[in-house]
Design brief:
Blueprint: H1 20-24, E1 56-59, E2 68-69, E3 82-86, E4 99-102, E5 108-116, E6 121-129, E7 137-140, E8 145-148, E9 160-163, E10 167-173, E11 177-189, E12 196-198, E13 201-205, E14 212-214, H2 219-229, E15 238-239, E16 246-248, E17 256-267, H3 270-274, E18 277-283, E19 289-293, E20 300-312, E21 326-336
Parallel strand pairs: 15-17
Antiparallel strand pairs: 1-17, 2-9, 3-6, 3-8, 4-5, 4-7, 5-6, 7-8, 9-11, 10-11, 11-17, 12-16, 13-14, 13-18, 18-20, 19-20, 20-21
Length: about 325
Amino acid sequence: MTRKPRRASGPIVPWLALGAAALLAAPALAQDEKKVELPPEPQAVPELNLAPLPTFPVTRGRSAPNVQFVDTTLLPRDKAPRLDYVGQEQGKDFTLGQALKGEQSGATALIASDLDNGDNGTLTLARLQGEFRDGESIVDAKGGSAQVKGAIKPGIWVLDFAFKPIRVQTVEIPGKGRRKIYYMYYRVINHTNKARPFVPQFTLVLPESGRAYQDVVLPNAVEVLKLIETREDPSVPLLGAVNCIGSVTPSTRQGVDDAVFGVAMWEVDDAIAKADRLSIYVRGLSDGYKRITTPEGEASQVRYKTLQINIDRPGDERQLSNREFRLLDPPYEWTYW
């Protein structure tokens, strides 16, 4: 049998437990440390125990007007779950891209790659749901079959994310009066096999100048935006910068997803109002990370798997209008930032 190449992967870390400082800035080694020998992965640290966030049921797979759904399929540079198998008979090879199912556990996944060594091998998986059991039979939709050997080797997880393009609204800001804000309405769903921490960081960046703005805390504005964005069903819980930290429970019901809804906001200043291009970086949707080395090779930094949303606004700074915000093509990309 021929060997099918396995997709490239990178290390993972439960970055949430590294603390808020790790979320706000990528840590670096001291500049006077020359070519420090680094371990392949950081030491394991305990995860934070976060309370479940309030969710609202939505029909699985249903589209919505003006909503951009994000593809969360793992990239070649991401570390994906892997599963060893044995006892594969001739003619029972697995087929790439097909659905894999555990006959006893009911766990499912898509086959991303297969390192085939004859009667044994290793599968790289995507869209994992549930947990495969040691020794159980696994089959794919094209007749491939074998038996699981050992426990699954975990990869990174990614929460499903959907959003509406940036909009503008005038709100009352305590101590400042009525000001304009940019805001982004979003939805998060957990399609992994366990509860996942959600400690998001929304950063608005002006590409031309490099200026960056963090999501602001405006509880009264959240109530105003709730009236606008959830008017079809006011019972939808809308979270802001303060109360959006928690855990997202996995969606396990048939045909229904338990969604977390939130809004990120930025106070508009002259620089933001004049900007023709905007990028929103959303960190906290995954535990994927990678180390990078400076061009001089003297320091190492940790960067996290981050969603980058790219927006064009061709209007002027005097008449800000929702109609001016347009998603670029492509509207988003995954990066390590």
